[in-house]
Design a protein that fits this description.
With 142 residues, this protein is of the alpha+beta class. It is built from three helices and six strands; from the N terminus they run αβββαβββα. The protein has a six-stranded antiparallel barrel.
């Protein structure tokens, strides 16, 4: 009896998790230039430019240089945590595509570089996200 209960507990999702918070496996990309990372919530340009370095069917990972952060307060800050939860949009010039999403996390890589994860599930249907992922350049392919 205890073995069945243990098996059932292992098979059930952890409390507090739901399908919406599932993160798909990310794929490395040939770095792709982005520009105009803008907060819709605050109508503020956050970064002039950056690179899209990883993507999945649920979102993407950006790398932003400190010098490209628009507000001086962010260039001088040690954390961008306050941006988490902001609705944003940006432009991928090579694809002539403007895309929006929500910042889910920020991470300081070193003193001059940040990584920003953006989830775009709310703004795009699943089939569209899958097609976008297929079109993004893989390392050595662009």
């Amino acid at each position: 009896m205890a073995d069945k209960k243990t098996a059932r507990l292992k098979a059930s999702p952890k409390s507090g998790q739901d399908a919406h918070h599932h993160r798909a496996a990310r794929e490395d990309l040939e770095p792709l230039s982005i520009r105009g990372l803008t907060s819709i919530d605050h109508m503020t340009l956050l970064a002039r430019k950056g690179l899209l370095i990883e993507a999945s069917t649920t979102g993407f990972l950006l790398e932003i240089e400190r010098r490209d952060l628009a507000p001086k307060t962010f260039r001088d800050s040690l954390s961008l945590k306050e941006l988490e939860g902001d609705k944003v949009y940006l432009m991928i010039d090579a694809m002539n595509l403007e895309i929006g999403g929500t910042i889910t996390r920020t991470n300081r890589v070193n003193k001059d570089r940040w990584q920003i994860a953006v989830d775009f599930r709310e703004d795009a249907p699943e089939y569209w996200r899958e097609c976008l992922l297929e079109l993004l350049p893989r390392p050595g392919g662009f």
